[in-house]
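Support request from a user on the community tier.

User writes: "When I paste my structure tokens into the form, the page sometimes reloads and wipes my input. The last time it worked, I copied everything first. Here is what I submitted, just in case something in the input itself triggers the reload:"
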């Protein structure tokens, strides 16, 4: 795969919603659990968990869990602006940028994951795996906020599906 960039990828999706609703979807535990996580804990700079409806701030950390998996992803909130941008660490030292813009009735969500290591495990598990995962979860974000339907598989007997 000549000229394939293993260190970064970007995915975009248009969602018919209010900008503030989509920003909250990334920055409040109560909202991010609707479309992405089974449990989201955000921790303030004093190492105390914040309330489910309290928005995150730069310098906070997180502990995230998904349905059907017994792993906890831990990371840092690098930057928030209270309106249309969030940056956090993910999958180790990778950075994820969430940039929101409006176009007509849509909020364009642009997700970029970068600083992906180039060892074989990272190429497979992070570059390809996260790209696939984020693609599904962005579609689920759209589904939840446009129609109220959560597409995630939560059935332990059905592991390995596209939607988990």
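"...and here is what came back when it finally went through:"
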């Amino acid at each position: 795969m000549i000229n394939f960039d293993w260190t970064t990828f970007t995915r975009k999706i248009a969602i018919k919603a209010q900008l503030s609703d989509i920003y909250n979807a990334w920055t409040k535990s109560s909202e991010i659990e609707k479309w992405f996580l089974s449990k989201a804990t955000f921790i303030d700079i004093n190492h105390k968990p914040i309330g489910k409806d309290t928005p995150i701030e730069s310098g906070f950390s997180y502990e995230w869990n998904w349905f059907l998996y017994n792993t906890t992803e831990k990371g840092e909130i690098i930057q928030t602006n209270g309106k249309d941008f969030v940056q956090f660490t993910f999958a180790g030292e990778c950075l994820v940028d969430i940039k929101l813009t409006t176009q007509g009735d849509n909020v364009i969500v642009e997700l970029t994951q970068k600083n992906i290591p180039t060892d074989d495990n990272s190429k497979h598990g992070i570059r390809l795996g996260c790209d696939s995962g984020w693609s599904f979860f962005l579609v689920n974000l759209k589904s939840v906020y446009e129609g109220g339907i959560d597409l995630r598989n939560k059935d332990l007997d059905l592991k390995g599906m596209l939607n988990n």
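Agent notes: The reload is a front-end session timeout and is unrelated to the input. The mean pLDDT is 96. The helical segments are 19-27, 29-35, 120-147. Escalated to web team.
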